[in-house]
Amino acid sequence: MGLGNLNDIGLEILVYVNTERCCAKELILFPYQTCPEHRHPDINGIPGKEETFRCRYGKVYLYVEGAPAEKILAILPKGREDYFTVRHEIELHPGDQYTLRPNMLHWFQAGPDGAVVSEFSTKSSDESDIFTDPGIKRIPEMGR
C-alpha cells in the first residue's frame, strides 16, 4: 500500500481469474493485518465491483456502511485511525460470507490467527480503487 508497514496495513492477493465478467482471488492476511478503507467506484458508466467475501480460515472483522458498533473488535493501525470511518461490524468465521455492493465503503482486518478469504466478484480494476487514506498507493512504484 506504499506505507512501508505491510505487517499492519496491506494484504497478500492471489488472483485466479480476472476477466471482463468475473474475478476470483484469495486474500491472505497476517494476524491483525488490515486492508484499508476503500471503495470500488463506477468506471465510465459501468457499476463498480460487486464482491463476495467468504472466510476460509481464521476470523475476519469486516466494516461496512451502516449503524456503527459501540466498540469495534479490530485494532486500528496507529497513526492512521482517522482513515477508518465506517464502523458497522460484521464478524466472519470459516464458512461465513458477505456480499458488498458496488461503490460501498469498506475495510477489514484479520483476527489473532490471520485469515484467508476467498473473493468472488465482477471484473476487478484494482488500480481504480479509491482509498480514504490519501497516503495509500494501490499500484507499487519503482524507486530510482
Task: Describe the 3D structure.
- Helices cover 0% and strands 42% of the residues.
- It has no helices and 8 strands.
- Strands 1, 2, 3, 4, 5, 6, 7 and 8 form an 8-stranded antiparallel beta sheet that branches.
- The radius of gyration is 14 Å and the shape is globular.
- The two termini are 18 Å apart.
- The mean pLDDT is 92.
**Estimated radius of gyration:** 14 Å
N-to-C series of helices and strands: EEEEEEEE
Number of distinct helices: 0
Mean pLDDT: 92
* Percent of sequence in beta strands: 35-45%
Shape type = globular
Low-confidence stretches: none
> How would a crystallographer describe the biggest sheet?
8 strands, antiparallel
> Structural class, from helix and strand content?
mainly beta
Total strands: the figure is 8
Distance between the termini: 18 Å
**Helical coverage, percent range:** under 10%
